[in-house]
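Bug #77: duplicate submission created two jobs. Keeping one. Sequence:
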Amino acid sequence: MSDGLSTDIIYLARSRLHRSRANLIQTLHTVAGFMATGCTVRVFMPPWPRRLSVPDRLEEMGIDAGIPLTPSQLLHPRWGFRPFVLRHRRMLAAAPVLYTRVPEISAVLAAARLSSHLEIHDVDRLLAEPTGERVLAAHKAGVIQTLLPISEGGRRRLIEAGAADERMHVAPSGVDLAAYANLPPFTAARDRPRVVHLGRLTPDRGLAAFAAAAAAGCDVTIVGSGEAEVEFARCVGVVPLCEVPSWYAQSDITLLPYQPEIDTVATMSPIKVFEALAAGRPIIASDLPTIREILTDGQTALLVAPKDNASWVDAIHRLRDDPELALRLAASAKSLAERYTWEGRAQGILAAIETG
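Kept job's structure:
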């Protein structure tokens, strides 16, 4: 993609480097994917504490690429992003590609007559806010060139709102396959299956389903939730992101009990889905439209009604009592993960940008 300029892509982020959240994980892995394709990328983001070592932080996140990160206080949301654009307008205008996943940034760039490409995660919230009207107007005018929802559900919502389908590309989340390459292979679930959940465990993320699994005889571990301990599970504190694959390896069954009341349920693409695939363990997941975009019942997972706790227990028993099914689902999941690498995601985005 390089045309002789020093930077092919300027990525404008709102993520905080010292906070381990999904938006940071996705931002940095996507940038690493861009770089793996041969692009030069410069990332601007809000500043981080001086004591933080950037190389150590990237290593902790499992990112090997020397991503060039530039801190800017002007990218703190309190300033509204306009001062950053005004100060760096010449640099931004010279970049072949301006990329962001922050609608407010893309809208400010459009107001300054600077073209950008916008990755959209929470479509419904965007369309409910004034920024949504500005983004759609700029997209229709061709100033926001490519819209990149992370699910087909998001794409449909945007088309209904008037976005140009020919300038959209669906870019689901991804996974670093190399991080999961050395996990021990799955063996059929034991009489007391081990279930490990990584991240926050709240009612809208299936707290009741995990409680039902524990009551049915599963050995449940909650890793890094940051929430109060729950009596039915062993709770482990926050772990470095590079240790996440080893925790998946300790699981016999992966539960993904997302609930319909999650704010982004209609347009989401949870990173945990792709981590679960790469781990190569049998998956039981909520039967929701955005989940069905990735997982197929009986082929790569067992899909069950989100709120029917008895169905979660039945699915666990089914995997425990049918080792051949569990082994087949685990192998199919691991194979499917190969379609959702971060580098593949980046390649799809770049192809959409170049042809849009």
